Amino acid sequence: MVSPPGGANLSLVQGPSDPPLWTKTLSEVIAEQAKQHGDKEALVVPWQSTRLTYRQLAERSKLVAKALLDTGLRHGQCVGIIAGNCYQYIEVFLGGARIGCPVVVLNTTYSPEEFRAAVTRSSCKVIFIASTIGSRKLDAHIETLATIPELNRIVSLADSDAHVKNLVKGKVETQSYSTFVSSAHSVFLNDSFFRRAEKAVKPEDVLNLQFTSGSTGLPKAAMLTHINLINDGRFVGQAMRLTPADVIICPPPLFHCFGLVMGFLASFTHGSTIVFPSDHFNATQTLDAVVQEKGTALLGVPTMFLAELEVMDTNPGKYVINTLRTGLAAGSPVPAPLMHQLREKMNVRGMLIAYGMTETSPVTFITSLDDTLEKMTTTLGRVLPHTGAKIIDKQGNIVPRGQRGEICTSGFALQKGYWKDEERTREAMRRDENGTLWMHTGDEGYIDEEGYGHITGRIKDLIIRGGENIPPTEIEERLLAHPAIGEACVVGLENERYGEVVGCFLRMASNNNNNASQKKRLSDDEVRAWVTQTLGKIKAPQQLKKNSSTSAVYISTPYGRTTSAVNVHFRKSLGPQPVLRVRRARGSPDRTAFRKLPLPRLGFGLRSAIWLMATECVLSILPGTTSAWRALIKPVLACHLRHSSTTSMSVRIVEVGPRDGLQNIRNNVPTPVKLELINRLEQTGLRIIELTSVVSPKAIPQLADCQTVLSSTPVQKLLTEKTHLRLPVLIPNTKGLDIALKYGVKEAAVFISATEGFSKANINCTVQQGIDRARAVATKARSAGVVVRGYVSCIFADPYDGPTPPSAVYRCVKELLDMGCYEVSLGDTLGVGTPYQVRALIEYLVRNGVPLNQLAGHFHDTYGQALANAWEAYNCGIRTFDSSVAGLGGCPFAPGAKGNVASEDLVYMFQNAGIDTGVDLLKLVETGHWISQQLGKANDSRAGTALATKHCRPSRGNSESAKPPKLEWTLERETENLLIYRSGVNLKMVLNRPKNGNALTMPMISQLIEAFKTASADPSISRIAITANGKFFCTGMDLAKNSTSVGQGGSSSSAMFERLTTLLELIDNSPKVTIAAISGPTFGGGIGLAFACDIRISVKTAAFTLSEVKLGLCPATISKYVAREWGTAFTREAMLSARPVGANELKALGAIAEVADNVDGLLSQLDGLLTRLRSSSPAGSRMAKELVRLSWAHAGGETQARGIQALFEEMMRPGSEGAYGVQQFQQRRPVDWDAYIRETQKAKL
Hints:
The protein is an alpha/beta fold. Helices cover about 40% and strands about 20% of the residues. It contains 44 helices and 52 strands.
């Protein structure tokens, strides 16, 4: 990112200048892509059973262009199309582009009147129209075309034009699409006319007209050029890291820039394949396309993703998605819970978020695949290459970083202007003092110190009261600070005297009915007084609506405001009432991305994130809005609701694993393991982590190292640098507090028991004495500036005294709050509570004046009720929950039973209910898996165990202990060509002819054959790795002049072929797990050597080149392994082009498992991989390899069936590794298979 001149810290950013812009026409790009990618599929449309290659698209678009010329169409005259996503759409778009005829893409949700107005305004000479889109007929739209005198021809996309001809009654010439295209074969036979027309097109010419939503009246039409759209699509594809191997599933419509530019052109400019699953969005067909076409990228808006996830939930097991690697979301901010679900259920690791507007082609900001989840869900990303952005105040001055103002953008993506509307072009596009042209977006936002954009609302959303600008969000924030208000939406209300005054919708907090102190309904005057107290009288709402709306609501839609059918229905239904212009709540900006999608009129067309109450009102009024659509719309809008702390769509997780989870572990846990656990937990996104307890070593030996933990460099760094973290420490007395203060602890936790028996047994004092101790700690802590959290134990029962009366719990809660605890956690120490008891206790506490927002839940799972209790507490209004990773911390009164609720289970439950936790679930699962292994105990998290099995993600951490262990290797044998090392059950072969690139000679091949035969027959070896010394991994067959085998033909070449084939088959059929650690560039036979192995890891600089075709040869020997692992289409292209294929390309295909920065990192990865494989049985691994081999070699045949049956019988045989593994599982013991093999071999000896 380039800083502003002079180093000023201003909100002015400029994208990189690399790569250079393409100054080409789309016609030139079509020709280049057809030449480069030829018979590779460019477009797949399953619902039309159509598959078109790059060459076919080039040929068919040329036919369309010639046929358009035959109608009399000339450069600059417009072609219109209204249709769903279909192959004809792309052919028309490309065909118009080739002869300089702008293609007008028409919104399929237009009413007939809007459609006619758009066609007339753009002066279309030819219209391509579908008869139906989904179940919706376009008869009325077709009929309106008969009234447009400028229109020359209507081309029906149906099989016949008879229906269209009948509707327009002969007033306009009609043709079917097939007839239209075939007519091109007979016109301009010498192509000279077409070539002249194509050559006349310039990169600066208008390629596309996109209608945008205007604030009043008819929409504007943005003129977008070849340079605009080609480069914008290209840079979006670059951000997604698209390659020819990618398959993009694109359900967004082509009549928007999302589908056309971010979808099709992004794919087309990168040689990828794009798939249109259906003509209009259909979740089931989209998922079918992902699975059947092996999609690697998925585009959509949050509404679409939610619908797809719902289909997956209602069809468990039907959609196993493991090919998606990335995606692109736009249309609305993507809530973190939805991002988590996409990662977990669809395995989408990198979902990009884009921002822009139609007038900027459309993207100007986009996130990166390297960004954190937080940045992906809370920022717009950074600007594209060759793009500028600035934030200005009302006077046009650039504001400092972090300050709000209007977002303006500049650069290649700016539209040419509005079609035939110079006045509005000048209003939106203005030059600064340096002559730079800027698009004034009308969006309010800011740019942070790292150059990331943020959006906060619309400039036009300001309420202007008598000349005073009033931001609605400021008033909403004040309203939501009142404990009785749950949701708020502030609006501008027309007023004759002031122009506008403040009005608001309110929904009262859900706990209001249960709170005795809030029984009286909050009056309008009380609301006004609450706002006036801090914001002043002019910002107090003059009109309020609580719980329901009785006034007409004026809804913004993408189709303009004055003609909205929504408004008509509101006014007809509610009569002549004052008009409220509903504005969005914060977090739903007007142009966060591209909202006009083919949903019902009130589906995704809503520009305002109307809170749920108003949404329900609208949905009940609009005709034809089904319950299915309501179910689809409401969850998305619910994510935008602005809630108070007691009704928010998010919860806080307090991770207690490092203290409460570990304190009852019998075996000593080393301090480095505890520190690594804290480090890993912080990386998951958890923001509250209980570090330890400053207690006597005699009382809790496991926490004897508490001072070592607190004084350690990692914890001190967290305490001093990570200001967003809360790191409480449990403090039993003032002596412990003094120690904690010495180490800079900023939050203390105190605890008391609600029952006498447990208090005496646990801390050797009465309840009152416990309260006094806690008060002493809290008082001293607060005076030192340390905040205090409280715990109450045994809220439902005591192992000594029996059931706990609610009054005893209330006493403790009140005492803790009175001594200054900001929050009290209710602990079901024995895990005996039920949801009924949870609700009864919470309601009892609330009735007695305990604020809900100062309560938290701490549930144990002794009787399997923890999640149910947490969910009930959430429904009662609790928003903070304690939990422990991997369910660490058993119940001391029920040995062997589960203790703390597992953090993974809690996060999984909430995230799948659409409730944000801020936690990366898969990282949390990794952490639970890791700590369970470190402790040598079973993982008590159900969700964690299931997800760890499903995703198999390797654990990562930043500290030294997180690095893969370094294995000790011993050189066992050295030959002229090979070094053979041993480490336990692992064997490593190193190619050792670096001076000739480790080229394969007859002696080397023979030595490799011998080594593999010996290792494969050795029962003490489980895994075989192969790597190389020197710059190259293996350059293939030795083609040097003094080579005696290759290139001579006859018996020499045959012998070489046979020996290499023998070697590769030995590797491929080895009963051991084989791993290739590829240390550098690889050619020909070396590629076969690597991809005959089971697993490949590589340095990122490695390139794989199949260059045989350049020598008049073909990679015959290795083709079987390469095509199988790379895929046939990719292999064919790589063989024919003889280009170097990058390691990351193959990683994206799944052909390479891991990529390292350098050789040292590669060898470290190899050691780590071999260590992880210790948990895999040798016999199980061999059988798994055989299952995979049967599936591709004999799929569906008798050989496969017999093979599976034989493997099943083998693994069930008494005395097998399977029998041993099951026995260990039943005894809850993890299996170290390396140790098992060693012991087995000893027993045999």
